[in-house]
Amino acid sequence: MKKVFILLPDGVGLRNFIYTDFLDHKGDSELVVWTALDNLKLDNIDIIALPKFKNSVIAEAKKRALTQSEIRLHAKKFNNPAFLDYLFPDNNNSVKNKLKNKLKDFYANKAEKSDENILNLRQSYLNSIRKSTYYQECLRSLKQHQPDFVFCTHQRTLVAVAPLLAAKELGIPTGTFIFSWDNLPKGNLAVEADNYFVWSQYMADELQKYYPWVKKEQIRIVGTPQFIPYTDSTLHQSKEEFFKENGLDIEAKTICFSGDDETTSPFDERYLLDLAQTVQSLNEKGLRKYQILFRRCPVDFSGRYDDIVEKYSDIIHVLDPIWSTPGDGSGWQGVVPLEADSALLANSVKHSDLVVNVASTMSIDFGLNGKTACYLDYNVNDEHPWDVHKIYNFIHFQTMDDLDPVYWIHSKGSMEEVLLKALSDNDNKLPNAMKWAQRVSLYPLEDANKRYWNEIHSIMEN
Fold first, then answer.
1. Cβ contacts of 413 within 8 Å, gap of 6 or more
2. What confidence tens digit (pLDDT) does each residue in 358-398 have?
C-alpha cells in the first residue's frame, strides 16, 4: 500500500480537497494529512502536525525579492508594463521594515536582469531554507513516516517550501497544486516540486512562459476541485428551502454582491451602497421586486459595510462565509473554512440571478451555473491613488480576451440599465462566459479529483 502525504498549509486546501470528493478516489492508498492547521480533526484520516514555522529575515527578503524581480523581468521580457501593477508599495512604517525592504531590493536589483539571475536567487533562497531548524524537523518527520508521495495543496505559501525541499532530498516524489487562476503572472510560485498540477492548458502554457525551467513533462493538466460543489447535488437545497432558511424573498430577483478584501477593493462598501440605492430605486418603480444577497470576502472582518447593511436591511440580506479564525484572523493564513460553507456558497450562486463585484472569480462561478456577471468599472474616489481600471488591466484578465463574457458597469448612473440587461440576458453573454470557464478550467468539472488521483497513482507507480 502506497502512503500519500497531503501537505495542507492553510484552509484553502481544506475547501478544495478535504471538503470535496478528493478522498473518494484515493483507491487503496493510505492518506495522511500533514498540516500547519492547529486542532484540525478529520474523520478516519491520520493527521500529523507540521513543525512550527518561523521564517528568517534573510529567507523572507529573498522570497520577496524573487517575486519582485520576476514581475519586473516579465514586464521587460514581454514588453508589458501591466505586470508592474502586481507590485504593491513597501510597508516602511518601522525601522525594521525599512531594513527588510532595503535587503529585499538589494537581492532583487540584480536578479531582475535575467532568467539566469532569477534562478540563482531562487537557489540562494532555497539554500537559506535548508539552513533552518524548520527544514531539519521536516526531514525528520519524513524519515520517520516514509511517504511515497507528498502533495501540496497550495503553491504560494512559505510554510510549504521546506517540506517539499526535504522530500526532494530524500528522493520522495512531490507535487503541488497551483491554487488560483491569477497566481502565476503574479510571481507566486514559492515552492519547487517534481510535478505541477494545473487547471487548464492555458495555465500550463503560463507556467512554462513565466518559469521556463519547468519542463513540460512536469506539468499535469487536471482542472481544479474549486468548482466541484456546483456539481455535487448532495449540497444543493431547493430554492424554497434556501430562501426560507435565510430570510430571502422568493418572489424577488436576487442580485449577489460578492465582496473583495480591502486591498483589492478599498471602496467596496461604496459600491454596495450604489447597488443598494439602485435596487431601492427599481423597487420603488414597482415593476417587480429586487433584493441583494451579500457575501463578504472571508478575510474581511472590517466594519466598513455595517452602516449600509443596517440602513438598507429590507434590501440587503447578509450571508457571511462560514469560516473560523483559529489564528489572528489576518489574511488567508489566519482563517479556515468550515465544511458547511461549501453548501452555502453553492446555493448562494445556484439561487441568485446575477453577481456584481470588482474583478472577482465569482464571475466564473456564476458562468458555470448559467448566470451572468457584472463587473464594477468606475472609481468612487478620484482623489485616492487606487484605480479600479488597473485591476482589469492585470495579466490574468487576458484569459477573457476576445470573449467579453461579463457586463460592465461604468458608472453609478448606468447601473440600473446594465442590471436589467444582465438579468434578462437571453443568452447574450452566457455562451462566452462558458467559453471563459472552459478556457480557465478543464472539463468535466466533477472529474477533477479523479484526474488528480490518476496522476498521483501514475507517478508513484513509475
1. none
2. 999 999 999 999 999 999 999 999 889 999 999 999 999 99
